[in-house]
Design brief:
It is a single chain. This protein is of the alpha+beta class. 64% of the residues lie in helices and 12% in strands. The protein is built from 9 helices and 8 strands. The longest helix has 53 residues. The chain is elongated and about 65 Å long. The relative contact order is 0.07.
């Protein structure tokens, strides 16, 4: 009987150990997942800090949302770890440094994004709303200065604030002009500022703004440079076809003209002849909205380049390819 009772006791003890072992395994698994996410976040933090320290506000802006999401996902995994001391350790090790980096630029990102919104307001002829948003920007700037001074944040590269100042100056020019028409900034600023400006010249299709982003500047030959528009999405190309199909090709022509004027002004300011092209990997899709003889070349069925304009090497007078297209489109 005693032997039987002993066996029962062993069985009972083993049964009691099963949930405890399962809980330990689950807890340990949660901890390992949190650590793995934390290590990935640490790598992203290193990249994010390198973007900040490079002084290129636009790269920081492009990475900001993904970095923020990485922080949030890591926090969620840490929240599933058992033991407050474990969670505190993981948050201190991984999340806190990432949040400090994010908070270091949060107001600058907020400002540049609000400036982009105001820029769109002009293109949509929402002048009153642009004025209202600019007032928000001024309040944001004042609040940011107070918090930065009180919080002792690490200073940012001067080029970040210079880019913000350049964009604000351009917005003020548009506010003073009190018109929805695109204007060329009176001061070009850095090449980064100018390229981002080109990316924010929209095609206004009856109140719907089409963004054609991806402008870069690259050497052409030994003594020249060109502006290139990369990475058209197929949806953008199809949208261009739709614009032309309903007879609103003037909107695309206006976009091209604005790009021409801006690059021509940049050319004059820098004492050089510049060229602008738009290009894309077409993924087997050739937009019918552009005539065949405006293409520079084809690469199989997956690449092409067409002129936005060529500056004449003698008199530096740009000519928009869309002018010729509109005059002769019925012959294509």
């Amino acid at each position: 009987m005693k032997r039987f009772n002993g066996i029962l006791s062993l069985i009972f003890a083993f049964v009691l150990m099963i949930p405890a072992t399962g809980t330990y395994a689950a807890s340990n698994s949660n901890y390992q997942r949190a650590v793995s996410a934390g290590e990935e976040l640490k790598k992203e933090l290193s990249k994010f800090n390198s973007y900040i320290n490079s002084g290129n506000l636009y790269n920081v802006d492009a990475q900001y949302d993904a970095f923020t999401k990485k922080i949030r996902n890591t926090e969620l995994l840490i929240g599933k770890v058992s033991g407050s001391s474990n969670r505190n350790y993981l948050n201190t090790t991984y999340v806190r440094p990432a949040k400090i980096a994010k908070e270091r630029v949060i107001y600058e990102i907020s400002q540049i994004r609000l400036l982009y919104i105001i820029d769109k307001r002009f293109d949509l002829n929402q002048l009153a709303e642009a004025e209202s948003d600019y007032a928000k920007l001024e309040r944001l700037q004042k609040r940011a200065k107070q918090i930065k001074e009180a919080g002792g944040y690490e200073s940012l590269p001067t080029s970040i604030n210079r880019s913000l100042h350049w964009w604000e100056s351009y917005i003020v020019e548009r506010l003073n002009a009190n018109t929805s028409e695109e204007i060329v900034p009176s001061e070009i600023g850095t090449i980064h500022d100018f390229l981002v400006y080109l990316n924010h010249v929209y095609i206004n299709d009856e109140g719907s703004l089409l963004e054609l982003k991806g402008w870069t500047m690259e050497p052409v030959g030994e003594d020249g440079f060109g502006f290139f528009l990369r990475s058209f999405s197929r949806s953008s190309l199809e949208k261009l076809d739709e614009i032309n199909a309903k007879g609103n090709d003037e909107a695309v022509r206006e976009w091209a003209t604005n790009i021409v004027n801006a690059i021509d002004y940049f050319s004059t300011e820098n004492g050089a002849v510049w060229y602008a092209y738009a290009s894309s990997a077409c993924q087997g899709y050739v937009p019918s909205s552009f005539p065949e003889d405006s293409y520079r070349y084809y690469v199989g069925s997956c690449g092409y380049t067409f002129n936005v304009f060529n500056a004449d090497s003698k008199n530096k007078t740009p000519s928009v390819f869309y002018d010729g297209y509109l005059e002769n489109k019925d012959n294509y």
